[in-house]
Each structure stands twice: as structure tokens, then as C-alpha cells.
Here is the input.
Amino acid sequence: MNEDLLSLMPKTDFTRRAFVMTTLAAGFALAVQPVTAQTIKTDTTGLIAGEVKVPVAEGTIPAYHAMPATGGPFPVVLVVQEVFGVHEYIKDICRRFAKLGYLAVAPELYARQGDVTKLANTNEIFTKVVSKVPDEQVMSDLDATVAWAGKSSRGNIDKLAVTGFCWGGRIVWLYAAHNPKLSAGAAWYGRLAGEYSTLTPKNPVDVASELKAPVLGLYGAADQGIPLDTVEKMRKALKTAGQPSEIVVYPDTPHGFHADYRPSYRKDQAEDGWKRLLAWFKQNGVA
Here is the structure.
């Protein structure tokens, strides 16, 4: 491994604990079932897809990856999970990217804290698992995932993007402030401001001036969990910092509008957001 890749590997020891998850769960998370009839399923024809192990400081974490079966090296997209973990929807997102010529990889970022796919509701997921996940750990695991992609002969980490949904949308903003090798990000309805804790010491609005890659934010005006005043606060912070990032707000649109397996799905907004994401990545050299 060359020095550039070594520099991406985690250097902290906060993760010295047993892993709760050593393999990915199958299907959809319990808390989101039953899934709707409109759920999109992308096949693996022409792809290499499945679970892989990503080396981290103290072992490995499971991840799902998908890429074209031939060719490469491919531009790399980190896919950051919703609050529901790396379940079938996130895996399908990876396959959608792979069909377009990307190596997409979604690491299980709760692997040390718990398997949220077996929990019955969102409150349980937050209190038992998500509230115990440090931002520092997440940044380190994403760095390790980039190193894994770079070490493979199929990923071109000089063309690196990140996208995430819900919980992962917040992480996109933070990672764009963390990794100078990142080329672009796309955050789907990620929280921008709110409460702080010792494990989550900063919100995206706090790092607006520190972004090292432009981020496209995709939000819904009817999102009950992300007040519009926080979206405007982020827009103002980006403008003040002279950042080229952009935020799109869809009128009368709820949280989770891209999640095709849930009633919150809004087809027109989801498709428009996906087109904007692909154009954003291409505009910023990730294609």
C-alpha cells in the first residue's frame, strides 16, 4: 500500500471494542416493513456486487459494494446509510451507481454499536444504537473505505464522491469538511443544525466554511424533522464562506422523499434529485 493510502487509514484507538456486526443483514430493516409496492429493485446483470470486508484499525467492518463486471478503474462513490443501516435500499443504491459506471460502496457504520435492522422502531434505533456512534468513528471508517477502494485495482479514488440519506445526509456535510481528497458530495435531507453531544460535537452549519468539496443539498420543504430556518441558516453560512455548494428545497415534500420503499417517496422529486446528483458529480469531475 502506498503512502497516500496509508494516510487514509484510521489512526485513532477509540474503536477498540468488540464488533456487534460482522456481516450485513439481509433484506429491509424491521422498522420499515412492510415495504411498498413501488419499491425499486436493481438487478446485478453486468455487475460485480455483494458484501466485502473493509479493514479498519482493529479488524474489519462489513460493507456492500457494486461495480461494473468489466473495465475500470471506476470513479468511487461512498454511500452513507440512513438511520436504518445498510439494508436493501442502500444496497440497491449501490447497484444503481454501478449500472452507471461507478464503484459504489456502503460501509456498515454502526458495526461496533449494534444491528439496527432488527429493531422494531426508530426510537429504539436512536436510543440503543445511533446515539452511541461517534462522528470521529464514522469519519475514520469512511477513510478506511476509501483506502479499501483505492487498494483494489477497480477504484479510482482521484474521482471520489459521497452521498447519504437522512442520518447519512448529515454525515455527507461533515465528511466534505474532513477529507481533502473528496471531489463532490450530495446530501439527501440530512440534519443541518440541532443538539450537540460529546460524540457529535459539530453540526454541518458549524463546518460550512471548512468544506473541502462542494456539496449538493437536497431537502423537502415539508420535512418535519429539518426546519426550513436551519436550511436557510446553512445557505447563509455557505454564502458567507464563499462556498460553491448548493441547496435545493422541493416544495410540499416530506423527509425521505427518495426512499422508494416507504410511503414518504415522491417519484418526481426523487428522480429530479438523482439527475441533479449525477450532473453535480460530473460537473465536479466524478464521472
